[in-house]
Every structure is written in structure tokens, then in C-alpha cells.
Amino acid sequence: MPTDDLPETFHVTTDEQLRAVSSLTRHRIMAVIRFEPATITQIAERVGLAKGSSSYHVRLLERAGLVKVVRTRKVRGVTERYYAMAARTITLPDPGEGGPDMLMRHAVADLEAAPADAGRHVRMAHLRLTDEQFAQLGERLQQLADEFRALSDPSLPDASLVFALFRPARLDRTEGEAK
To answer: What is the pTM of this model?
Structure first.
């Protein structure tokens, strides 16, 4: 399926959509079909689920509008459906102060589940930046991610890039010492 036909962004706005993306299993299913359509059987094999479980999760994603059937074919009298993402990117609402950031939680879970010998680049850097430098770094990180996303080839192994540029909450000195 050519990705030129896909809208650029899908904005998660409803509770149903938020529940659909809040599951780590559904997050992993969306990663499988991000670059190329797949059947329930193919999704089940890639995610390591039973076909019935994969079907259940895909139906929830489809009902929420996050994935769609992009083609079908008959195989021994059964209609096989190929699912793909409904947009190139999904934008989640801001979790709000103190709320869970599902994207980061899913990314950490995927990182922890990744084989250590598969190649990982993980780094945390503490910076002191002006507002202008902060904005500039955010833009450059986004441009770099977009540049490499354009180079993505479905025939190559998956790689995930997650970045978070944020200003941490200031801890009250007594609160920080109590922890």
C-alpha cells in the first residue's frame, strides 16, 4: 500500500481512541503494520500472540479508527484482510501534569524487551538551555527523525527512535531529600 495515500497525522481525541492506544500489545501491533500491511496471522506471529488475541486487539484499533483494512483476498474460501495504519503518525493528547505518558511507557517496555545483543543506543543528557536553544534542539531532533523515517524500507529490520526533550519539574529541596 503506498503511504502517499495516508493522511499525515491522526489525532487521538476520544476516550475510545485513548484506550485503544494505551495497551502495550496494541502499541506493538501498530508497530508491525506501520510500514506495510499485514494479516491477523502475520501480526500474531510478529507480536507473539494467538490469532484470536491479535484479532481482538486489531478490531479494537479498527473500531477506534487507528487502523483500517487496505485490501482483501480469498484464501481457500476465507477472506483474508490486510490491515495498515490509518495515518503516518499518531498524536496523543498531552497527558497533563503528573499524568502517565503512554508513549514513553510503551517505549521503555519495548526497550526493556529488546535483545541486548540487537544493538541499542541509549543515552540521557542533562542540559541547561535557553528557551531558544530548547526550541531549536526540539526542531532538530524532529527533523532528524523525519529524515530517517523517509529512508525507512519495509524489507529492513525494525528500529525504534524515541526522544523526549523536556524541562523536569523542580523538586522542593525537602521533598527531594525525603525520597
So the answer is: 0.68
